[in-house]
Write a structure and sequence with these properties.
The structure is a single chain. This protein is α+β, with helices and mostly antiparallel strands and 110 residues long. It has one domain: RNA-binding S4 domain (Structural Genomics Hypothetical 15.5 Kd Protein In mrcA-pckA Intergenic Region, Chain A), CATH 3.10.290. The protein has three helices and seven strands, in the order E-H-H-E-E-E-E-E-H-E. Helix 1 packs across helix 2. The longest helix has 9 residues.
């Protein structure tokens, strides 16, 4: 998180609700209090944790690990297309072919 005092922030539980990841703020707060969310790589258990644009959230939900960069805060819990504009999904799509890495080079015998 930035030290910029002018940075706009919102409660983590409210953002998860507005971005339509959970059906209520109460469910969002429960997920957070269970310690199942990381903000910028740091675990948090505080639903009131302030988050803003640029923060990266990591959490498992509905059998999938989500890695998101917050792009906007939102003013309300709007329709899905509006909610999808609040974040950038950084995790690969499930079932998408993983980028293949070259196998390690064989050790030289010289």
């Amino acid at each position: 998180m930035s030290d910029d005092p002018a940075r706009e922030t919102i409660r983590l539980d409210k953002w998860l609700f507005q971005a339509r990841f959970l059906k209520s703020r109460g469910l969002a707060a429960d997920l957070i209090q269970d310690g199942k969310i990381r903000v910028n790589g740091q675990p948090t258990d505080k639903p009131a944790r302030a988050v803003g644009a640029g923060d990266v959230l990591t959490f498992a939900l509905h059998g999938r690990v989500r890695v998101l960069r917050i792009l906007g805060l939102g003013d309300r819990r709007g329709p899905a297309p509006e909610a999808q504009g609040l974040y950038e999904d950084l995790a690969p799509e499930p079932g998408a072919p993983a980028a293949r890495q070259a196998p390690p080079a064989a050790p030289s015998l010289e």
